[in-house]
Amino acid sequence: MTEGPRNSVATPISDLTYRDYDGPLLSRRLRWWSVTAGGLRTLWRLDLRAIAFWICAVLCTGPYLILGFFLWITSTVAGGNSRAFMGSAPGVRFAMLFYFALRLQHLFLFVVALIAGAGSVSADNKANALIVYLAKPITKMDYLLGKWANIFIVVFGAALVPALMLYLYCLAGYTSEGFLRDDPWLILRIVAVSAIAASVHASLVLGFSAWCRTPRTASAVYSAVYWGAWSIAFALTLRTPDEDMTAAQSLVAHLSISGVFIGLAQNIYRVTPSRFLNADFPTPPPWHVLSVVAVVLVLGGIAAARARIRAVEVIRG
Amino acid sequence: MSIATLTDLTIAYGPKVAVSNLSVEIPEGCVGLLGPNGAGKTTLIKTLMGFLTPASGSANVLGMDVRREGLRLRQRIGLMPEQDCHIPGMNAVSFVAYAGELSGMPRSQAMRRAHEVLEYCGLGEARYRNVETYSTGMKQRIKLAQALVHGPKLMFLDEPTNGLDPAGREDMLTLVRDISHGKGVNVVVSSHLLPDVERTCDNVIVMREGHLAREGDIATLKQGNEAHVDVELYAASDAFLESAAKRGAALVSRLGSRYTLRIAEGVDCGRLLFESAGESGAQVRGFRPSLRTLEDIFMEAMQ
Hints:
A: about 325 residues; B: about 300 residues; 2 domains; four-stranded antiparallel sheet
């Protein structure tokens, strides 16, 4: 073998010649995971984005910590009766806790989704990096699936881990008060709710990211859509008290990104119209209607991203 | 042996035909892809990578059909694009290792290989620096490294010396030459810089307006079918040129009293020159066979 043209640099690697790669290759079906793993590794770097992510991830635990604290206060300091704090509906006392925490947490989940997803494709667009990915033996769908899974895992983790912490706390201290007996399937409901929130965020932020040239633009557009939809839904149902809402008005009130997964969470946790910590929970729209909207959002986001991602610009005409 | 066979290949962007009925065999080794802007070079590379679907005709690269086997093909091809294309926020080792992982290499292998390739490309000392802080020359090298990491059998290099200073250009050309000669990697270099192609390539394909204008190995093309001679007279003489033209010599270029003449095949060059000098009264100080440059070949192909 001949030596490479620049081998004079003092280096710990003694062999500077170019060799052909004849080592093992992973299955083609796992290529999307390389994209996901590459994205997840960026969260362990010491840069502003990663720091912002970890701060938000910690903030995601806040609502669950606060509710866990209230639970402890009411059950120990305030006379040993946590039922007053948790409401009177016997089947959903603990589920109510998790549902209320999600309502508070959704703001932080949104920020986590922005940090994890706004730059997922737009940063590649900005740096012309798409061609690096697609010139390798991966398909457009591998790339998309890898990016989607990256955002999903991050948001899912940020939603699920704090809920699991509260769940374990309840399991340790409130089994005698009917924690497991009230709802043996609560753990599955928590996982499902976290997965739905993560799916909706992952798909939409991926779609917006694919259509933007910079992460900042993608963040701005997704924020505008997220809060714009929420504001419109809020404004349209502002004058109607939650307890007087018709089914149609309830649907309108949930026609926003957060409204969809919060409404679905209310269905999944089976939280009925009630009052909890001075907050009114109206009757949610039927789960199947919200499921259709959620599926449309998830598929729409992925389809939008798919339509935009190309290795090379193809200008027709 | 050819690494790619194109048969009546037509590539169109909607109604606009970018490459029309191109039939050519791309030989092994280092091949230069030449042509003015809009000739269809980059479109051809995109198609051979499987990014664009041909409108008609066929293209086989390394024995694989670009229409049906794009994915398998890209396992064995490396692309060094013209524009900067790093993945943001990564240092060189992470970036090149990630490119290896995308090609299917296990993480440990990709990392080992990234170190090797970066050393080979001359970025050993800068491998832990963020790629965004690299100079233009270093960015060109890292593009080469990411294309090389998975051990391709064929590499497409799109303007590899773009934006490089003379020293950087020299290093890059040496690197390209080294890869394509003795490393078992075939290289297709698309460039506007004819001296770069002449330095690194053994063969050229010249394209013009989506058509094949000229192809072959550079040494043969330089000789041409007709002899070119450089003639130096004692003083410039139009009468000598007229006399030579009558005997079958055509003027290619002139500089003072030096002329380059194209002499038709089968004509005795010495006899033609001396007869013309005798007739015109010009004094020939010397003459020698003229070797055409790649630029001459290119300009002829463009006419």
